[in-house]
Amino acid sequence: MTVKPLQYEDIPNLEALQPPGWGDIRANFQYHTQSPICDPLKVVIDDKIAGVGTAIRHTDTAWLAMIIVDPAYRNRGAGKAITKALIDNLDEKHYKTIQLDATDLGYPVYLKNGFQVQTEYMHFNCENYNREQAISPFIVPFHEQLRKDILELDRRISGEGRAATLELYISTSFLYVENNNVQGFYIPALYDGVIIADNDTAGIELMKLRLKTKQMASVPVDNKAAIEFLRSHPFEYVRTSRRMIRGEKRKWKPEGIFNRISGALG
Questions:
Q1: pTM assigned to the model
Q2: What is the model's pLDDT at position 212?
């Protein structure tokens, strides 16, 4: 068993690792192999790719993502090996906080690698949501002059410097602006469609906009207002996943996350 960098040329060989119910993982790894903030790895057994995973680096935090093992090679230590390698490749003096969103399958592996549960995400689905709800007049398209306000709001809520990721799609965002103050934002093009807000009104109004085109929603259990809104419309609870952390705890506000970015980025 060896762990090596995943190359762009490896991507066609990842079909065997595709988990059911996930989006096409090859698209994710196309981005990961070309992004300057991502470090994708593969574990090789018997000259075949048995598993993959990626580290994503923010300003001073990192996320582990897309850790997947081919079912034919499970229970042979591949998941543990790739998780350890992703951690070892990070400078933990600089990236003092490492986080991930764990599936039930990966959870025991991450515990053994020093991760602890930070909170949980609740995942909901609704096929009959009323998409005719009016959109708040305080929601406006992205304005360049508000770019810094968006990034500052995200840092305040997430506790992380995620500008390198947000900047890729920030021009597609919608903002909740009242009295010239950015109180929330929604970026539909960024993975699952992240919503960050510093109050419940802004967050719920942006959720209404997002749900015009989405039927899934994922929010922290700490965000009582978002969960109450979803349950009243009526969204059905699908599952729970664990957001886990290793290293230094961050000051963040999970109640300000009205939809996560994705399982890869929280």
A1: 0.95
A2: 95
CATH code for the structural domain at 2-95: 3.40.630.30
Q: What is the pLDDT of residue 131?
A: 87
Phi, psi of 203 (to 5 degrees): -65, -45
Give yes or no for a cis peptide into 254 (omega within 30° of 0): no
CATH 3.40.50.170 fits 124-259, yes or no: no
Q: Percentage of residues in the chain with pLDDT exceeding 70?
A: 100
Residue 21: predicted pLDDT:
81
Q: Cβ–Cβ contacts within 10 Å for residue 230, how many?
A: 25
Q: Do domains 2-95 and 124-259 have the same CATH topology?
A: yes
Strands 61-69 and 97-102: parallel
**pLDDT tens per residue across span 159-203:** 999 999 999 999 999 999 999 999 999 999 999 999 999 999 999
Q: What CA–CA distance (Å, rounded) separates 36 from 32? A: 8
Sequence spans of domains, the chain: 2-95, 124-259
**CA 141/CA 137 separation, integer angstroms:** 11
Rounded Cα gap, residues 116 and 130, in angstroms = 38
